[in-house]
Amino acid sequence: MEDTVPKSLQFLDIGELERTAFEGALADAGHERFRARQIFRWIYRHGVTDLEAMSDLPRELRTTLAADFTLTTPDIVTRERSTDGTEKFLLRLADGRQIESVFIPDTPATTFCISTQVGCAMACAFCLTGRMGLVRNLTAGEIVGQVRVLTAALELRNTAFNIVLMGMGEPLHNYDETMKALRILADDHGFAVPPRRVTLSTVGLLPALERLAREPIMPNLAISLHAPTDLQRGALVPINRTYGVADIIEACKRFPLKRRNRITFEYVLLAGVNDSPTDARKLATLLAGVKAKVNLIPLNAAAGIPFERPSDDAIDRFAKTLSERGLTVSVRKSRGRDIRAACGQLIVEGQRKSPGQQLSATAFAD
Ligand code: SAH
Predict the structure, then answer these.
(1) For tag attachment on the chain, is the N or C end more exposed, with fewer CB atoms within 10 Å?
(2) Please, what CATH class does the domain formed by 75-353 belong to?
(3) Å from CA of 170 to ligand 1 middle
(4) Cα separations (Å) of 363 from 123, 134, 352?
(5) Which of 312, 324, 242 lies closest to 275, judged by CA?
(6) In the annotation, is 343 catalytic?
C-alpha cells in the first residue's frame, strides 16, 4: 500500500496562514521564525506570488518552501473599468469558481469591496447575488487574496486603503474565515490594514453579531436594515423571520463602539415598498438611542429584480425626514453602474452569458 501522502496534500498554503502559525511551521522545519515576517513582506507588500522569486532567502529555506509550501493566488478573468474610475475584477479561484471584487478609487479613500462567499444564502429579494444561493464559503486566503490580486494589478504599493466586506456573500455566515482574513490583513508585516479601515456589512445574524462584539479585531459595523418593521423587512430579507428588527437593534445598542464611532444602517430604497415618509419616521424612531448613521442606497435596478428605484424627489424627501429627526444620513452614490459593479450586481449578470458554469439553472427560474 502507498504510505506516502500525495505531494499536493503536503503543501501548506501560506496565504491561509496567520503569521504566528507560519512562524510555527517554519520553526518545525528548522528555520528561524523571523523568516515568516520576511516572507509576509514579500507576499503582501511587494505582491510577489512566486515563492522562488524571494531572492533574499537562504537556499535551504527556499528548498523548504518549494517542498512544503505553496501560495494560491486567484487569477484575473476579466477587468472592467467604469467611466467613474471604479474597476470590477472577475477572479477565478483554484477550484474554478468565480467571484468579483471591486476597486473604488476615492470615496474619499481608496476602497476595495471584496467577497466572503461564492454566492450567498441570504436570498434578499432585491439582490442578484442572492439568486445564486450559496455555492461555498471563501477561505481566509481567498478573501485576502482578492486584496493581493487587486493591489498588484493596480500597482498600489504603500497606499492606505479601506476594505468593505460588501461584495458577494454574507460575512457573518462565514465567520471564522472572515475573522481570520481580517487578522491576516491587519498583520504589521503584511498589509497592516487597521480594523478601523474595515467595514463589515451584515444582514444581522444575531449569534454571530454577539460573537463579533467580543472580537479583539473589531471592524466597523454596517447593518443591512432596509425596513423599519418586521413585516416589511421579513419580505425583503428572509433571515429577518429568524432574527427580527427589535433583537438586531438591541444587539446594536449593546455593541461595543469606540468613542465617536457609529454603526451604519444601510437602507436600500425601493419605490413604493419602503420609501414613504411614514417609513422614514418609523426608521427614525427605531434608531433613536442607537449610535447610528444611515446610508441610503437607492436600488440598483437590474433585469430580474422585481423592484424599482424611487424618484430623486422621494429619495431626497426620505433623507430629509431622517435628518430633521437628528439622524446623520448619506445617500450612496452608485459607482460603476456602467460595468455592473454596483451593490448587489456582482457576478450574476455576467454569469447569464455562460449559464451552467457555476450557477444552477434554478437561479434564474423565476
Ligand atoms: N451580505 C452582506 C454584505 C453584502 S451586500 C449584507 O447584506 O450586508 C452589500 C450591500 O448591498 C447590502 O446592504 C445589500 O443589501 C446591498 N444590495 C444588494 N443588492 C442591492 C441592489 N440591487 N441595489 C442596492 N443595494 C443592494
Answers:
(1) N
(2) alpha beta
(3) 9
(4) 11, 11, 10
(5) 312
(6) yes
From the candidates 100, 142, 170, 266, give the one annotated as an active-site residue: 100
Mutate to test the pocket of ligand 1, among 138, 143, 166, 221 (most ligand atoms within 8 A of CB): 166
Tell me if the pTM is above 0.85.
yes
The tens digit of pLDDT for each residue in 272-306 reads: 999 999 999 999 999 999 999 999 999 999 888 99
Architecture of the structural domain at 8-68: Orthogonal Bundle (1.10)
pLDDT at 333: 82
Residue 127 in contact with ligand 1 by CB distance below 6 A: yes
The per-residue pLDDT for range 147-163, each reduced to its tens digit, is 999 999 999 988 899 99
Q: Which of 224, 273, 294, 340 to mutate to test the pocket of ligand 1 (most atoms within 8 A of CB)?
A: 224
**Ligand 1 contacts CB of residue 170 (under 6 A):** yes
Q: 215-234 burial, b if ≥16 CB within 10 A, otherwise e?
A: eeebbbbbbbbbbbbeebbb
